[in-house]
Design the sequence.
């Protein structure tokens, strides 16, 4: 039978608080590394020189086309077999393997997101910057990338949400993040299902808090969205029934008449 007392016992225990912190900091570090790597790969992929663009294309093809779980296992078991050395084994600890695998995988996805964001900026702005005497790098830093960030941030936020959950794959190599902690301690007392419920609770806490943070970041980058949301806001009854016009819609209809 399901043991609710086990859930209550472990829900806010030090074991799972430590596991939640491990999940969080690994996600933050891997996402940050993936963003930097993705920017470099995006600029390489957009280069007109094949010797620069094709390696980036190959990298993105490889890491987007193969499962993250396989990449973790290759790094953890395959590399030490290819290069048998105690030094390699010591360097490639469980945490290091997970950080490298998550960062490399995320870099491929962020490369495409970043490329799409940069491509969305009007090409005429780069031409205008060059006409003013700006070099390519300076124009990218001061004009193109600041505008592209507004396009990049929403999918980047979704990627970080996914990163928080992707850390669960580290359980296959025995890393004690949330899922690994639930499996290890649950198997010892035959309460794995109960502890997976605890892990699920903490995943929901982390992703929910990040959802609020993402919304705040997006509003800061695009203040016009706040006023638009207020003008288009409906009451709970209108949202529930799916009827009725918001104040913004009423003003538009009146203006049309």
Sequence:
């Amino acid at each position: 039978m399901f043991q609710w007392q086990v859930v209550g016992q472990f829900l806010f225990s030090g074991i799972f608080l430590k596991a939640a912190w491990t999940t969080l900091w690994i996600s933050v570090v891997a996402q940050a590394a993936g963003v930097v790597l993705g920017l470099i790969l995006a600029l390489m992929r957009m280069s007109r020189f094949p010797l620069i663009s094709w390696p980036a294309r190959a990298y993105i093809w490889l890491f987007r086309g193969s499962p993250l779980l396989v990449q973790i296992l290759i790094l953890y078991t395959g590399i030490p077999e290819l290069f048998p050395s105690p030094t390699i084994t010591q360097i490639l600890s469980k945490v290091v393997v997970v950080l490298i695998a998550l960062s490399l995988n995320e870099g491929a996805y962020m490369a495409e997101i970043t490329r799409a964001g940069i491509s969305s900026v009007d090409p005429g702005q780069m031409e205008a910057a060059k006409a003013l005497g700006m070099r390519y790098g300076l124009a990218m830093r001061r004009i193109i990338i600041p505008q592209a960030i507004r396009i990049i941030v929403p999918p980047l936020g979704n990627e970080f949400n996914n990163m928080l959950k992707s850390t669960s794959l580290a359980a296959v190599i025995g890393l004690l993040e949330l899922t690994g902690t639930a499996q290890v301690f649950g198997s010892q007392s035959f309460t794995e299902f109960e502890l997976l419920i605890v892990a699920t609770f903490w995943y929901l806490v982390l992703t929910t808090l990040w959802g609020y943070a993402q919304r705040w970041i997006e509003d800061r980058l695009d203040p016009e969205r706040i006023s638009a949301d207020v003008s288009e806001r409906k009451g709970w009854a209108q949202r529930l029934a799916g009827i009725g016009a918001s104040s913004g819609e009423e003003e538009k209809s009146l203006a049309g008449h």
About this structure: The CA atoms of residues 5 and 194 lie 9 Å apart.
